[in-house]
Amino acid sequence: MAVKTTRLPLKLKDLLHNNNLVFHDGDDGAYVILSTGVKVIIRPEYQREFIYDSARQKAVIDTINAKCPLGTVFFGLCDDGEYEMIDGQQRTLSILHFINGDFSVELNGETTYYHNFTEEQKEEFLNYAELSVYLCEGTDKEKLTWFRRINLVGMELNDMELTNAVYHGPFISSARKFFSKRDCRAIRVASIDGRPLVSGTPIRQDILKTALTWWADSMEA
Fold first, then answer.
1. Which of 88, 101, 176, 195 is 20 to 30 A from 32, comparing alpha carbons?
2. Domains of the chain: which residue ranges?
């Protein structure tokens, strides 16, 4: 069967559980607990790393403060009732990091953090127009196909990111810990006198791609 999609009514306030942010973002993954108590796995194994820089993160918050549309987000329904994010990680993490107090924005000509918002400002922010969220139901293969299809636009996935999505598993998950984090071990050891031996950025899988290419070449030698 094809992936079934249904509209999931959510506002930003639904990212809080009992009015508190229950949120984690680390090398072992990212998740948030919704107001309903449902866990959303924001970065499942097939997802790319968080790649938004500070300017893009602030642009997401500026979009909300300007009451402009934020774009569509897709959740996948897991067998255990949890949700996994098929598309929307970059925008969602930007919002959660802002609420968590990780960066500031310009509001009414002043630099401010979320925790410095007045209660009225917080209420207005959290009640931003209903998000365009769709819940997708289908097999893992069908959801991965959907993931590839909807990521043909926006910040397009490169070949290595798409390969990781299709062939995700224990090996890829372990490899990404060493080759695909901002300050991963590969970056720290693959240099001579402070000069990197490989080019590219780990969070776009460039370092992992280089390492796998070297390994493949050695097998053919």
1. 176
2. 4-156, 169-221
Q: At what angle do helices 206-220 and 170-179 cross, to 10 degrees?
A: 110
Residue 92 CB burial class (10 angstroms; 0-12, 13-18, ≥19): buried
Contact indicator for 61, 105 with CB cutoff of 8 Å: yes
* Residues 60-98: tens digit of each pLDDT: 999 999 999 888 899 999 989 999 998 889 999 999 999
User: How many residues can be counted in the chain?
Assistant: 221
Whole-angstrom CA distances from 139 to 145, 147, 157, 164 are 10, 12, 22, 18
Residue 19 CA to residue 17 CA, distance in Å, equals 5
Among candidates 77, 64, 93, which has minimal Cα distance to 6?
Answer: 77
Contact criterion met (CB below 8 Å) for 77 and 137: yes
